[in-house]
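---------- Forwarded message ----------

FYI, see the Ammonium_transp domain-containing protein record below. Original note from H. follows.
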Amino acid sequence: VAMRFSRFARINPYIQQYQFTVLMLLVHLLFIVLFGVYVSFDELYAMPTAANDNTYLNSKYPYYMGTHVMIFIGFAYLMAFLKRYGYSSISINMLLACLTIEWSVLCRGFFSKDFAEIGTISLNIDQLLRADFSSACVLISMGVVLGKLSPIQYVIMTLIEVPASTATEHLVMDAFQINDAGGSIVVHVFGAYFGIALSLAFSSKAQRGHEHDCSIYHTDMFAMLGTLFIFVNWPSLNAATAVTAEEHHRAIINTHLSLVGCTVATFLVCPIFEPRKKFNMVQIANSTIAGGVAIGTCANVVLDPILSLALGSIAGVISVLGYIYLTPYLSERLRLHDTCGLHNLHGNKNIIEMKSFVA
């Protein structure tokens, strides 16, 4: 027994050293096998036919690319505001987004009618677009626990969250038939509170007020760069799942108006409530895009532009106040450390979204 224990003790350090590599190798090989067994091109696009032209692709690809830019550039640089965590923020963002796309295609496929009827998963650009939505959900959770987890823990988080978010989306949109064009409920709210649950489990007293839990000049510039990419592409995200041309039109206009109103309100409110009476770049970088979340649920059905401006303005005010008052309270009283303050950006807008949807 002693010899076996000593042999395990010699092997164990190597297992610990390469555990991330081993896990990623096993997961990626499993995904490759599952893709080979179950995934195939949609029949309409598998072979060239008269019905298979570029009309549908040309109509969907701009929305897909806009969402893609938000995920891989906007989210990555927005979370690069920490002065000692920029490399990990951008690189782990890319890893989790790619891993989520693979896993989401499979999970959504297992819930699809094609899989239930013929046992295969049909792959098209809509599936990839939905996979980007799942990536946004995972990256929101990542932002809440940014700097707290190791790479292997981020991977495990992704493997758990993607099936959970897919099941939630199926329940909300298919079972309850709730309109959620921009994924404000099934993406933003779910991702925020999933991350908050993780933060409750992994936050420690030492993390609150840590010397590295802050931004500096050039990291704030990176965060603002990410904000600009998200700002200009968010109408694509909210309009991506719209069905008719009229819904696309309304979603784009309403999202843009909501973002504009949110930005103006953020710059208006920030110096009033900020203790130093100055603009705070963390608040500016995050609160200016809160309008995209607030309008997401009803972007394709809101008809009056004044509602879009009002929703965006209210979202900006609530987000700024959340960063100033709510985030410190949650950290000090409830031991809930939200690294990026994404509860203020993605989470507490749920009340506004649902009220606007009901109205």
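H. also flagged this: Residues 21-41+59-237+247-358 form a domain with the Ammonium transporter fold fold (CATH 1.10.3430.10).
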